[in-house]
Amino acid sequence: MTSLTVEKPPPAEPEAPTRTKKSVARRLIPFGYLSPTIVLIVVLMVVPIIMVISYSFRDNVIVQENSVFAGFANYTDVLTDPDFVAALKNTFIFITVSMVAHLLLGLGFAMMLNSGMLSGVTKAIFRVVYVLPWLFTIAVIAVIWRLLLDPSGVINYVLQTLGIIQDGVNWLGDPGSALWVVTFVNIWSGYPFFMISLLAGLQGIPGELYEAASVDGANPWQKFWNVTIPQLRPVIISMAVLDLIWTSQQFALIWMMTGGGPLNSTEMLSTFTYKLAFSEYEFATASASAVIVLLLTMILAFFYVRQQRER
């Protein structure tokens, strides 16, 4: 008999390197999708921030070819400037009063729209009316309120007609009233965002909690304090921190209504920094002021991120 010889197939080549390349490529695919956004963030945010920080430690930047290292001298000049102290105080009043008023108005209107005492048509009308201030741009809001608050404007005419005042008041030209008027306008334009967010939170509270509270004999105030507020606490904290960050960066409204005046009565950190850079051309000092504002904003952002993680 003739014996048959079976040839063994050649050993397969190791696939480990190929699999490693594929896994690496698969991991890099998401970064490829994100690369345009990452490039924009680096070019438009990271690089300018680094440049501003470097400018804050130097003198004679931008306007002169050769700048010199100044250390912390620019920060000392900013922190000891009376105008900066006034701007810091005005900013604190502006953001604190605005945030508290946004919260109270937003919660009040949200609870009204969430109540069962109003019909569907009435709620729809109120929703449109309450959201209107949020639909206008800052430029439109500033122009409208400047016309309304003019000494010969509508507000003074109504107050004179009612006998509350005798002569027209220059609301934006009086150092004693300008800051509070600008704060009022900011409150008017910003409360709808609180209202919408809190209304969504109210509609997400289970009705069984209120039924259980009623069974336990709780009155409306006890239901509000022991059921509504605890359920809305995460939303309230998040909105409050976000509002502090956004309001601290408010520039357009202040600049278009008062320009920081009169007599620095509405000067904010944003307008103070802008004037240093583009009115006085003190770019190094303006950079130091911008870094200080950045640090204050990062502190608020830190609390916001931590609160979000706790949720």
Automatic annotation (TrEMBL):
A Pfam family it matches: BPD_transp_1
Swiss-Prot/TrEMBL keywords: Cell membrane, Membrane, Transmembrane, Transmembrane helix, Transport
Membrane topology (UniProt): Multi-pass membrane protein
Extent of the signal sequence: none
Major place of residence: membrane
Subcellular location: Cell membrane
PROSITE patterns tied to this protein: ABC_TM1
Domain (ABC transmembrane type-1): residue spans on this chain: 88-304
Membrane-spanning parts: 31-57, 92-113, 125-148, 178-200, 240-263, 283-305
Protein family per UniProt: Belongs to the binding-protein-dependent transport system permease family.
Entry-linked PANTHER family: ABC TRANSPORTER PERMEASE PROTEIN, INNER MEMBRANE ABC TRANSPORTER PERMEASE PROTEIN YCJO
Protein name: Sugar ABC transporter permease
